[in-house]
Specification:
This protein is of the alpha+beta class and about 400 residues long. It has one domain: Cytochrome p450 (Orthogonal Bundle), CATH 1.10.630. The protein is about 50% helix and about 10% strand. The chain is built from 16 helices and twelve strands. The strands form four sheets. A five-stranded mixed sheet has the order 1-2-10-7-3. The chain has a three-stranded antiparallel sheet with strand order 4-12-11. Strands 5-6 form a two-stranded antiparallel ribbon. The longest helix has about 30 residues.
C-alpha cells in the first residue's frame, strides 16, 4: 500500500497535515521505501521513542558502520561529519552526558535571563525599522536577523562578521533534509570548513583574552579536570547557531502566516497580550518548524506488532505528533489559549533542546514587539514555502503596516 508521504513535493510541504492525518489513521508505523525509514506519526509513540535508550542519534558509540550494516559516508563529506558528530545533537552517552554537563555550566538559566534586555532591545529595533519602512519581508527584516544577532552576541562574534553566520547555517542545515543531493553536500562541506576555521580563530582570541561571552565560558567550563576539546567547542557553537535560530526563524514566519489565516485568534491576541506565552506554544504546535527527527534502532524494538530490527532508522514525525487528536483535543483547531500543551517541537529525553528557554524568549520578544508596534500588520500576498520538508519554513512573508 502506498504511504501518503511526499516530502519532496512542494504541495505536500506547503500543507502536509491532511496526509499526516491519513498516516495516523492507517496505523502506528509505516515503512517508507524512498528513504528506507520507518515513519512514526503518533504523539504517544514519538514521545516515548525520544526517551527510549534502545534508540540513538548515532550508533558509532556501540558499532562500526559495517557492524551496523551501514555504508560509511563518502570521504568528501568528512568535514561536515566531523563538525556534526562532535555536537550534542548527534552524540550519545557517555560523550553526550559529559559535553552537555560542561555546556550547561556555561549556558545557564542565568545566562539566558541576562540576555533578556538585549533580546528585547534587538527585537524592538528590528520592528521599529520595519515600521519606519511601512512594511517589508518579515522573514528577512525580523525573523532571521533577531536570533542570529542574539547568538552572535552570546558568542562574541563582532557585528561586522554576523552576515556570515546565516548563510553558513543554511548550507549546513541542508544536510538534515531527506536524501540530500551531492550539490547540497558540497555546500555543507564548504560551510563546515569555513565556519570551523572562523570559530577556531575566535577561540584562540578568547583563550588569550577571555571576555564576558559564551565562548570564554565554554573555554573555562570544566569538571574534575575535564574540559571541552576544541572540536567539541566548535561543534557546540555551530549547533547553538543552527538549532538556536532555524526553529525561531520558522516559528516566527510560519506563526504569523498562521495568525493571518485565523483572524479571530489574531484579534483575541491583539486585544490581550497576556496570551502571548500560550500563543507561542500553540503556534509551535500548530505548524511545527522541525517536522521530522531521526533515530537509529540500536536494539530490536516492536511497535504495534511490527518488529523493527537493529540497524533500522526511524523518522519521528513531530508535525504529525503535534496534530494527534489522542493528545490534543480539536488538534486541527488553532487555540492560542490552549493549556497543557505537550507539543514535541523541542524534542524530549536527553536531547531535549538546550536552547528552548532562549527560543521562547526570542519568540515572545519578536511577537510582542510586532503586536505593540505594528497592530494593523497584514500580509501583502500569499507566501511561497522554501524547498525542504524537515526544516519547514517560508521563503518570505511580505507585510504592510
Amino acid at each position: 500500500m502506498d504511504v501518503p508521504f511526499e516530502p519532496w513535493s512542494p504541495a505536500f510541504a506547503a500543507d502536509p497535515y491532511p496526509a499526516l492525518a491519513e498516516l495516523r489513521a492507517r496505523g502506528r508505523v509505516h515503512w517508507f521505501e524512498p528513504t528506507r525509514q520507518f515513519l512514526i506519526p503518533h504523539h504517544a509513540d514519538v514521545s516515548a521513542l525520544l526517551r527510549d535508550r534502545r534508540l540513538g542519534r548515532t550508533y558509532l558509540h556501540r558499532f562500526t558502520h559495517e557492524e551496523f550494516g551501514r555504508t560509511p559516508p563518502p570521504v568528501a563529506h568528512e568535514p561536515f561529519h566531523t563538525l556534526n558528530d562532535h555536537g550534542l545533537l548527534d552524540l550519545e552517552a557517555p560523550d553526550h552526558t559529559r559535553i552537555r554537563r560542561l555546556v550547561t555550566k556555561a549556558f545557564t538559566p542565568r545566562t539566558v535571563q541576562a540576555l533578556q534586555p538585549v533580546v528585547r532591545r534587538l527585537a524592538a529595533d528590528l520592528v521599529a525599522d520595519l515600521r519606519r519602512a511601512g512594511g517589508g519581508d518579515l522573514v528577512a527584516e525580523v525573523a532571521e536577523p533577531l536570533p542570529v544577532a542574539v547568538i552572535a552576541e552570546m558568542l562574541g562574534v563582532p557585528a561586522s562578521d554576523r552576515g556570515l553566520l546565516r548563510p553558513w547555517s543554511a548550507d549546513i542545515c541542508g544536510m538534515y533534509e531527506l536524501n540530500p543531493s551531492e550539490e547540497t553536500a558540497a555546500r555543507a562541506v564548504r560551510a563546515s570548513l569555513e565556519f570551523s576555521a572562523y570559530l577556531r580563530e575566535l577561540i584562540a582570541v578568547r583563550r588569550a583574552e577571555p571576555g564576558d561571552d559564551l565562548i570564554s565560558a565554554l573555554i573555562a567550563a570544566h569538571e574534575e579536570g575535564d574540559r571541552l576539546s576544541e572540536p567539541e567547542m566548535i561543534s557546540t557553537c555551530v549547533l547553538l547557531l543552527n538549532a538556536g535560530h532555524e526553529a525561531t526563524v520558522n516559528t516566527t514566519a510560519n506563526g504569523w502566516w498562521t495568525l493571518f489565516r485565523h483572524p479571530e485568534q489574531l484579534a483575541a491576541l491583539r486585544a490581550d497580550h497576556s496570551m502571548l506565552s500560550t500563543a507561542v506554544e500553540e503556534l509551535m504546535r500548530y505548524d511545527t518548524p522541525l517536522q521530522l527527527f531521526e533515530r537509529w534502532v540500536l536494539d530490536d524494538i516492536e511497535i504495534d506488532g511490527t518488529v523493527i530490527p537493529r540497524g533500522s532508522e526511524l523518522a519521528l514525525l513531530f508535525g504529525s505528533a503535534n496534530r494527534d487528536e489522542a493528545c490534543f483535543p480539536r488538534a486541527d483547531v488553532l487555540d492560542l489559549a490552549r493549556a497543557d500543551n505537550r507539543h514535541v517541537s523541542f524534542g524530549a529525553g536527553i536531547h531535549y533542546c538546550l536552547g528552548a528557554p532562549l527560543a521562547r524568549l526570542e519568540l515572545s520578544a519578536s511577537f510582542g514587539e510586532l503586536l505593540r508596534q505594528a497592530p494593523g500588520m497584514r500580509p501583502v500576498s500569499e507566501p511561497e514555502w522554501r524547498e525542504g520538508f524537515v526544516i519547514r519554513g517560508l521563503r518570505e512573508l511580505r507585510v504592510e503596516l
